[in-house]
């Protein structure tokens, strides 16, 4: 097989070895529309020819902002990269102020947007962007140029030799993309990733992911502007996997049933929601069906891989899979045999439960700056261990610093932060990238993440508290949707909690608890507070006295990306949450 050294080599590799009819598939007006490997590259080359005719030079920047994953994004991606320009993807949900900062800082000459909402944000700040020449949209929008104008401009292939010459001059060390991190504090940082960074990560990760080459379907819904989903889509192309784009996060369950995918990437929050729905349905069963359901749940919570629980457990599990767990699999399309989880810590309980249900979730770990994968589990060859993020992938060296910080070195480490050599020097020393995460490598070589270095805090008594450990334990409660542990410099840890409003309403109905009609009434309901206190008390038993959450307050709003409490990858924006709920924080510690 020819060596793949640049990102646009992946679709050519797919075309040569698999040439599938469903390389990229998007739903338009209720119909799934397939783009074949041939059509994908024909259109990407038309885009490249058009961009050259528009005067695009090597190292020019083109921004792409899409509210959903779709075929056009990938055609633009390859079209841009082949001209030696850089694709600057932007999160659609960030503020206009951040749009302006990124478009200005990157010096984007053109901007491609998906829809009316994104266009409105760009229009609002257009006057402050003197370098931005024009805006094109994927959807048909009155008064906005459409991306199909480029396909038309590039239809004449007389300048294809010029495109080929540009491609031939691009080396693996050249800059491919700038991805602005959604940092929880300060201005976004532009992470510069070369072709080599991402290609090395794809080829290092592919050995851990079992695909049936040329015969699998993937469902893609995590933001394509994030390097995690983007790297995985190159991996799909390498293996000839058909990529089907979910319409939205709300329509995932419907789309999964239609597409019947074999693989998808997930984040822990999605798995938590899937499990909560399954569990809620189980509680509504009666008689023998209910007993069987909870017998299967009990088995799932005790799952250990590779037959470690012995033959009797495995025999019972085989029965549970036939009677109970097969229905879970059917609800997810019937073919799903691999989910890859990233972006945040996965509760070990969920890893066990889904593996028991024959819906294995392999947890991985990485950052934008590492392209992104550092380590990932693999169900084969005893490379899977619950509670860890797996072993480091090929070509990535991991070591633990004296203070417990995870350091990584390899061809996947970013070129640096765009226009910011000082910040780059702060995080890369002797070729090692400082991840900001605390972890350990166990005797078998599995990497375990324990907390964010910056998030660990010290109480006034001098004791260190790792908030993520406490938060992950508390989120196992069905009453708790989101939680942030606080207490820096205070005498004890406490928590700000966003209740699971839907579940609490249902619980209140079943237990005749009044005053749970809306989020405000739920957050102030004494019976709800007492019930959540019981959940906290149970969780506290697992922790040392200095770590126990002594007090908490419930917040009346749903924490969300638009609300500013969560990053686009669903991590907590701790500073913003603290500012927003300063009065609740003060209430906790003034009465403590």
From TrEMBL:
| Stretches assigned to the AMP-dependent synthetase/ligase domain | 21-418
Q: Which Pfam families match?
A: AMP-binding, AMP-binding_C_3
Q: Which Gene Ontology CC terms are recorded?
A: membrane
Q: Write down the SUPFAM superfamilies for this protein, in alphabetical order.
A: Acetyl-CoA synthetase-like
Cleaved signal peptide residues: none
Q: What is this protein called?
A: Long-chain acyl-CoA synthetase
Query: What organism is the protein native to?
Result: Flavobacterium caeni
Q: Which InterPro entries match?
A: AMP-binding (IPR020459), AMP-binding_CS (IPR020845), AMP-dep_synth/lig_dom (IPR000873), ANL_N_sf (IPR042099)
Q: Which keywords annotate this record? A: Fatty acid metabolism, Ligase, Lipid metabolism
Could you tell me which PANTHER family the record lists for this protein?
Answer: AMP-DEPENDENT SYNTHETASE_LIGASE DOMAIN-CONTAINING PROTEIN, LONG-CHAIN-FATTY-ACID--COA LIGASE
The family database entries (CDD domains) matched by this protein are listed as: VL_LC_FACS_like (cd05907)
Taxonomic superkingdom? Bacteria
User: Listed GO molecular functions?
Assistant: long-chain fatty acid-CoA ligase activity
